[in-house]
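Recap from last week: sequence in, structure out.
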Amino acid sequence: MTEIKVPAVGESISEVTLLKWNKKDGDYVERDEVIAELESEKATFEVNAEKAGVIKLASFNEGDTILIGDLIATIDESAAKPASENKDILKAEIKKDEGAAKKIIASIEPQKSAEPLKASPVASAIIADKKVDVKTVTPSGPSGKILKDDVLAALSNPGKKAFAGAELFTRNVRTEKMSNLRKTISKRLVEAKNTTAMLTTFNEVDMSATMEIRNKYKDKFKEAHGVGLGFMSFFAKACAIALSEWPTVNAYIDGDQLVYHDYADISIAVSTPRGLTVPVMRNVESLSMADVEKKVVELAGKARDSKLTADELTGGTFTITNGGVFGSLMSTPIINIPQSAILGMHKIQERPMAINGQVVIKPMMYLALSYDHRIIDGKESVSFLVRVKELLENPALLLFGKDPVKTLLEL
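Predicted structure tokens:
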């Protein structure tokens, strides 16, 4: 009998939350198969079967808090493996006969079809005639069937929409246990506000040149590198150059010491259904634009699937957050401690700009740099943000941080 216990995931972490059971009690598991997904205050991780056999799960429910070292499952490796009828093994066995494989697998896999509307004939007719959104209708019939009166009730309340799963004029209050991740986010945000002398400086950038390059080369870029050309690579590379020129923005305070970094490990804020995570791109100064885009896709995917490791969530020297994807026009981002600064990107919006005495419509974005005034002075913060603006408005400078023509003329 093999015991599976909650592994240690960090010096200061004593408990985790059970997010999901991936196996049922009594299932036969292969070695290294995922048994469960757990969440610590820093990251999510998987627990794997150490040996093959029949598994017996501990009496924990999803959402329960479990201590490090607790027994979560046992595996009886002496149990015989049951005859398998799953389609994956069947595919391997008949791999040589592609036609037969498709027929057999099709007979095993459930037929996928659109779920029919569960409504009475009269209700269905009214829904079709009035083009009623069925999401606004509360079914009252047996097994969730929509009746005529349900549709009429929805039509009689134009402009009134109840919360999901609730009725109009409800006074219902719900409680939900705070996850370890949400507890950590709360603690770190309060700590950042209480322990840093945080200040925010603003600027705006004309995105015309960057957007022109993106629109011109995005198809070729995707074809050559297998990843889309987004704005994050432009911002990350611009910040890497600016950080090399303003090293205090890339530093942090450790006791009575200032810790400087001769590299740019840039954290990117990623919103997930479980909360905000901030994975790190290492050595952005040494990456190409394609490398940055690939890393962004990789980290964002891992964040959404709860696959980020503790190492991928620690060690950043600077953070970029993009509230523009949600429509934010301007905000004051909070520093990701122990870092000393964070750049906030926002929505690109066409605005009238005065250029050479003429009013011109330009795609503009507000930028916000929140910084720790204990280590970064006003001159440094403003100059950093102006440099980022300059690099984005003149993307050719991203090659090596200098104007190509001026470099050619040695000016």
